[in-house]
Amino acid sequence: MKRALIVEFTKMNGAGNDFIVVDNRFYEFSVSELSQIAQQLCPRRTGIGADGVLALATAEHSDADYRMIYVNADGSEGTMCGNGARCLAKFAFESGFHKTTVHMQTASGICEVHVSRDAPVRIYLEAPRDYDSSIELNKEIPEAITSVHYLWPGTEHLVCFTSGIGQLPVEQWGERLRHDPALHPEGANINFVMLDPESPDTGIHVRTYEKGVEAETLACGTGAIASVVAARKSRLIASDVCDVQMPGGTLRVGLEEDRVYLEGPAEFVYRGSMELDIPG
Q1: What span, in angstroms and rounded, lies between the C-alpha atoms of 145 and 164?
Q2: What angle do CA 163, 230, 153 make, to 5 degrees?
Q3: C-alpha span between 247 and 207 (Å, rounded)
Q4: Is residue 126 within 8 Å of residue 140, measured between CB atoms?
Q5: Where are the alpha helices (DSSP H) in the chain?
Q6: 220 noted as active-site residue
Q7: Is the pTM of this model over 0.90?
Q8: pLDDT (tens digit, 9 = 90+) per residue, 136-150?
Q9: pLDDT tens-digit profile of 43-90?
Q10: 112, 129, 144, 224: least buried by Cβ within 10 Å?
Q11: Active-site residue among 87, 111, 160, 220?
Q12: What is the DSSP string of 104-146?
């Protein structure tokens, strides 16, 4: 037997990367239940519409203030979401965590967050690991891509440099590369990157095909980090601080000795309630 549960939610976005946010300290949904919610409500024509679901949960570690659970639109749990983490931090700030520096537990580790009511939200993550500039893919790489780089800034990413991305078939190429056998079993987010012609030393343009969403998103926070790190390691940019232009807006990435930061907007869109059928 099922019973209806009325759940309050908040719709948020970070540079167009949008989320359904719930305060899971009250509802205590399991990851499996959040997966079902995501699959039901993230579709844009039949649901609320979002790239994923964020849940604010009680921390499991004493050195964290709270925990983020992130579920992609297809119901798979994500290890890290840069824009999601910034949105959840702003949501938590407005929900009573009024410290301007907090520590958030995620599936990829604990990150430091700087948040206030009016300023952009900045999160600090460990420096990306597993960087590989010579990864060999099984499938043929389109001629327009000049080089590919693999790295893990909290989740799996492939960075593809090219001279232009405006007319690039991101959906087509992203889907093909995202499932390349060399990236199995997890697959990877696929980032198409070009230097900013107006500020080539300090700016890049990025379009990202996200696994779990299985589509191009308007922005990807970990994709921005991955793209800047790959560009810096390849000496394509000269600065350790880079502005990343994405279809939904601009994110700033800073590279430090043993960590990186991601800074950008985290905006409330609206609040509402939804009726869910749950086992009685």
Answers
A1: 9
A2: 130
A3: 7
A4: no
A5: 24-27, 31-41, 82-94, 170-178, 221-233
A6: yes
A7: yes
A8: 999 899 999 999 999
A9: 999 999 999 999 999 999 999 999 999 999 999 999 999 999 999 999
A10: 129
A11: 220
A12: EEETTEEEEEE--SSSPEEEEEEPPEEEETT---SSPPPTTEE
Q: Is 81 in the active site?
A: yes
Closest CA to 240 of 201, 195, 206, 208: 201
Structure tokens at 10: 């908040």
- Name 148's bridge partners: 160
- Residue of 42, 81, 111, 160 with catalytic role: 81
Q: Is 199 helix (H, G, I), strand (E, B) or coil?
A: coil
Query: Residue for token digits 């990202």?
Result: 208
- Rounded to whole angstroms, the Cα distance separating 164 from 194 reads 6
| Dihedral angle over CA of 128, 130, 132, 135, nearest 10 | -130
